[in-house]
Amino acid sequence: MPCTPFALERWFARHEFSTRWTLSSSDCDGLSQAELLAGADAELRALWDGLRLGYTESAGHPLLRAEVAATYAGVAPDEVQAFVPEEGIYAAMRCLLEPGDRVVCTVPAYQSLYQVAADLGCEVVPWKPREAGGWRFDPDDLAALLRPATRLVVVNFPHNPTGALATRGELERIVELVRARGAWLFSDEMYRGLERDAAERLPSAVERYERAVVLSGVSKTLGLAGLRVGWLVARDAELRARLAAFKDYLTICGSAPSEILALIGLRGREAILARHRERIARNLARLEAFVAGRPATLALSPPRAGPVCFPRLTTREGATALAERAAAAGLLLVPSSVFDWGDAHLRFGLGRESFGEALERFGALL
Ligand SMILES: Cc1ncc(COP(=O)(O)O)c(C=O)c1O
């Protein structure tokens, strides 16, 4: 099986830790360990202090699985399996797909969401959004892409990199279309909880469809990316057994300290999420004012959810050349070329406190 380079991650490998400012990271500012531990309740503090650093349970710490399950309606702890988020994508694709399968995926996308399938020899069909008037994936377009033998539909709401969010009605329609084909639905919900308007938060796909596989984790919304803790939720017991067996060839089990720290973050999630939503709203307002002052340079189709958005560059210089120039000046920008989406957009990340300072650097570069 080939292993096509992951363009976004290779770009980060080159520039993430050699630049001083970032305008393009998709996670919220990382919390400090001291700050996180200060918020631990007595039960978790005792677990942390007494933690032994041996192997952990492959499916995840029972308390972690229970805490995660409680964030979904009607999900039992044993329907949750711990995975590093990116590992979860890989495992799910390997367990669901065979060469020749048809897979429809929202694009532009976090590359592994379709690349693992493509490298496996599947036929990958892109479901593209409309940009004008706000990025939107039209379920009618999905309907036209489905065939009787479609094996899997992959969606990601809130969407990276555009900030698109389906409405509740659109999600119901997507589920209806996928169910009618008997296909699986892989729903990447890494950014769920960071909606502009809390009333727009979608139900999880696993609450709506028995053949949904949901991915989430603590990386983005809780600012705990360095813990490398995430999970898959699936109703189907046979699929869960395959996922468990597949994990034996990947990490086997999670990191003991990370699981406890993730648990502390999850128990304190409402306060952390509120703080991150407030920062994202503040940074988006800043960005909108910045764009309004430069109509000949940038256009922004506003995001509805999540910490990222995808403004269009209207300069003669392409996004990749600009991002290379920015990196040389100490500013991390992600050009749309790494999403295989032309060369006229930049991904902006709104979850960092230093956004204003980075935006000033960007203004100077423009
Ligand atoms: C949509 C999406 N899914 C999954 C991941 C993987 O998350 P992690 O880096 O925590 O493994 C990312 C990371 O950027 C992402 O944007």
Helices and strands in order:
Layout lengths: L6 H9 L5 E2 L10 H6 L3 H8 L12 H8 L10 E4 L1 H12 L5 E5 L5 H9 L2 E5 L11 H7 L4 E7 L11 H14 L2 E5 L23 E6 L12 E5 L2 H11 L8 H12 L1 H24 L5 E2 L8 E2 L2 E2 L5 H10 L2 E2 L1 E2 L10 E4 L5 H11 L1
Parallel strand pairs: 1-12, 3-4, 3-5, 5-6, 6-7
Antiparallel strand pairs: 2-8, 7-8, 9-11, 10-14, 13-14
The protein binds pyridoxal-5'-phosphate (PLP).
The site of pyridoxal-5'-phosphate has 13 residues, from helix 5.
Detail the poorly predicted runs. none
CATH topology of the largest domain, which one? Aspartate Aminotransferase, domain 2
Rounded radius of gyration (Å): 20 Å
The CATH first-level class of the largest domain comes to: Alpha Beta
Q: What assembly state would you assign to the polypeptide chains in this entry?
A: single chain
Q: CATH H-level name of the largest domain... which superfamily? A: Type I PLP-dependent aspartate aminotransferase-like (Major domain)
Overall pLDDT level: 97
Beta-strand portion reads 5-15%
The 3D shape can be described as globular
* Secondary structure: number of strands: 14
Strand order of the largest sheet: 2-8-7-6-5-3-4
The CATH architecture designation of the largest domain is 3-Layer(aba) Sandwich
Helix content: 25-40%
Please outline the major beta sheet. 7 strands, mixed
Short structural description:
With 366 residues, this protein is α/β, with parallel strands linked by helices. The protein is 39% helix and 14% strand. The strands form four sheets. It has a seven-stranded mixed beta sheet with strand order 2-8-7-6-5-3-4, sandwiched between helices. The chain has a three-stranded antiparallel beta sheet with strand order 10-14-13. Strands 1-12 form a two-stranded parallel ribbon.
